[in-house]
């Protein structure tokens, strides 16, 4: 039986910065207009945090703000970013649809584990017609978990996955894969630094390289034997 493939979303399948900038600026403009916050949208700060849980993002972008304001900003941002995706302002990485199709046709089961919200993931999957290739997807608000490691653990249990790859561009992806005894693949074209991806089993420089990776015979490695 072929191993399952678990993908991150931002920085792995989807170029998040394409919609993030406009959505973040719109969000902070609205907060300023309502006199709830004063200051420009900290776009560059957020770009360094892509893929992080949103609760951590808002603690950084709105320092000292009340929890209610952070919650409101989070809701506004989600609405704005979904609007941008539906307006076709976003972009997938090259060869994503074709690669997913080939992997599915080859008999691999495909999943998503992301720190993004379920509505965000659903919008991307529907807009780009990717849902036809995925068995299931797990976002940050699907389950009461506090980390991607726990999210991947639950996905693995729910679908009884004995062997799988975790494919992503941030340290949280590699750590989640290693902790769950999965083979880990670092997407070096995404948002993570080489330093934070150093513990990955394998690296890829483009999404289509996934096909070559999974076609290779898998030898014993730290992620699968620890």
Record keyword descriptors for this entry:
226 residues, alpha/beta, Rossmann fold, 2 domains, 6 strands, 45% helix, 11% strand, disordered C terminus
Q: Distance between the terminal alpha carbons, to the nearest Å?
A: 22 Å
Low-confidence stretches: 218-226
Q: Helices and strands: which structural class?
A: alpha/beta
Q: What is the fold named in CATH at topology level of the largest domain?
A: Rossmann fold
- Rg computed from alpha carbons, rounded to a whole number of angstroms: 18 Å
**Overall CATH architecture of the largest domain:** 3-Layer(aba) Sandwich
Q: Please give the count of helices.
A: 10
CATH C-level class of the largest domain is: Alpha Beta
- Overall number of strands: 6
Helical percentage:
40-55%
Question: What's the CATH superfamily of the largest domain, by name?
Answer: HAD superfamily/HAD-like
Broad shape: globular
Mean pLDDT: 93
Q: What series of H and E elements makes up the topology?
A: EHHHHHEHEHEHEEHH
Query: How do the strands line up in the largest sheet?
Result: 3-2-1-4-5-6
Pfam families: HAD_2 (PF13419)
Enzyme class: hydrolase
Protein name: Adenosylhomocysteine nucleosidase
EC number: 3.2.2.9
């Amino acid at each position: 039986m072929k191993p399952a493939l678990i993908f991150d979303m931002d920085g792995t399948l989807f170029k998040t910065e394409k919609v993030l900038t406009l959505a973040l600026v719109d969000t902070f403009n609205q907060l300023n207009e309502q006199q709830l916050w004063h200051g420009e949208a900290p776009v560059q700060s957020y770009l360094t945090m892509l893929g992080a849980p949103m609760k951590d993002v808002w603690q950084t972008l709105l320092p000292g703000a009340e929890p209610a304001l952070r919650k409101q900003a989070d809701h506004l941002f989600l609405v704005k970013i979904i609007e941008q995706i539906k307006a076709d302002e976003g972009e997938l990485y090259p060869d994503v649809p074709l690669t997913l199709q080939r992997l599915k046709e080859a008999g691999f089961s495909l999943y998503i584990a992301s720190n993004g919200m379920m509505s965000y993931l659903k919008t991307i999957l529907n807009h780009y017609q990717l849902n036809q290739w995925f068995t299931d997807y797990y976002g940050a608000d699907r389950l009461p978990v506090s980390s991607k490691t726990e999210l991947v653990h639950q996905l693995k249990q729910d679908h009884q996955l004995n062997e799988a790859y975790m494919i992503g561009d941030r340290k949280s992806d590699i750590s989640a894969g290693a902790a769950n005894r999965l083979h880990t693949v670092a997407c070096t074209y995404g948002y993570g630094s080489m330093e934070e991806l150093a513990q990955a089993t394998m690296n890829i420089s483009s999404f289509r390289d996934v096909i070559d990776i999974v076609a290779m015979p898998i030898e014993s490695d730290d992620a699968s034997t620890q």
